[in-house]
Structures are given as structure tokens and as C-alpha cells.
Design goal:
Layout lengths: L21 H8 L3 H12 L7 H15 L6 H14 L12 H19 L5 H14 L3 H7 L3 H10 L2
Length: about 160
């Protein structure tokens, strides 16, 4: 994990309370992913709310993605969800100390996403990768749509046909 002085101890999660994502991120790297992903989703994103802990997790998740041959769908889905929420007026901006790492992480996403998309066959993983790719290219609405399953998209199409 990148150490940023004492910034990590003052991070705020999606519930607007202190949260340090490092233990969960370390658990993922140690192969204890299932509970760690649940913890990250629970604490980094809450009903559209994100905080500094959410933003701090993105460069670390992208680093994990870069060292993974077959990523978990959560990697791409969570960073996409955080980026979508970041654009909402009610969420705080990325902290100044974190901005360079956050932007650099998103610059890496397209190349990583394309590498992982080619062999992907799981619908959820494919949707998550496409969402992250769209978000990285500034296509927010497309990113939102990509996170929907085929069934959800068919329902939307049926409602508007």
C-alpha cells in the first residue's frame, strides 16, 4: 500500500465516518477476497455517497488489477461506481494530496481493461470492465449503462419500445 504520511488514518468512507481500506485491500492481495470485497463495497460506497477513503482505494485497486491475470468483477465495478459517484455534486472532491495518484490510476485503466476484456467470458466481469473503460474515457452515461446486466438492459429497452 502506498503510504501517504498520516493521510490514511483520516480517511472518510461512504457512510461519512472514518474508514481505512488498507486491511481489506491487503486481504484481497493475500487471497482472502470475498469478505474483503464485501467490506470495501459496504464502506466505500453507500447509496451514492463516497468519501476520501473511496478515492484513496482507487489507485490501490488499479494496482491490484495490474498484477492480476484474471480480475474479480469487483475490481472494475467498484472503481467505476466510485468514479460515477465522484461526479455527483453532493460528494466531496478528491483530496488534493491524492489527486495525482487518482488521475494516474484512471489513465492506466483503458490498457488494463482491454487486456482483461479479451479473455473475459463472465457477464458481470465483462460489464464491469466495459463500465470502467467508459468511465476512463469520460463516457459517464455509457459507464452507468455498462454496469447493468443484459436482463436489466432488455427491461429498459422493453419499457421504451
Amino acid at each position: 500500500m502506498q503510504e501517504k504520511g498520516d493521510h490514511w488514518s483520516g480517511l472518510i468512507g461512504g457512510y461519512r465516518i472514518p474508514y481505512d481500506p488498507r486491511p481489506a485491500l491487503q486481504a484481497i492481495e493475500q487471497g482472502k477476497a470475498e469478505l474483503a470485497w464485501e467490506e470495501l463495497w459496504e464502506n466505500l460506497y453507500h447509496q451514492g455517497d463516497v468519501g476520501s477513503a473511496s478515492y484513496a482505494a482507487v489507485p490501490e485497486i488499479v494496482r491490484i488489477i495490474a498484477h492480476t491475470e484474471k480480475p474479480d468483477w469487483n475490481t472494475y465495478a467498484l472503481i467505476s461506481t466510485i468514479e460515477e459517484a465522484r461526479l455527483s455534486e453532493h460528494n466531496p472532491p478528491v483530496p488534493e494530496w491524492l489527486e495525482p495518484a487518482y488521475q494516474e490510476a484512471w489513465k492506466r485503466v483503458p490498457e488494463l481493461a482491454l487486456v482483461h476484456l479479451a479473455p473475459a467470458s463472465d457477464e458481470t466481469l465483462i460489464c464491469s470492465i466495459l463500465a470502467a473503460l467508459a468511465q476512463a474515457k469520460g463516457q459517464t452515461t455509457l459507464g452507468k449503462l455498462a454496469l447493468l446486466t443484459e436482463r436489466e438492459l432488455q427491461e429498459i429497452i422493453a419499457d421504451y419500445s
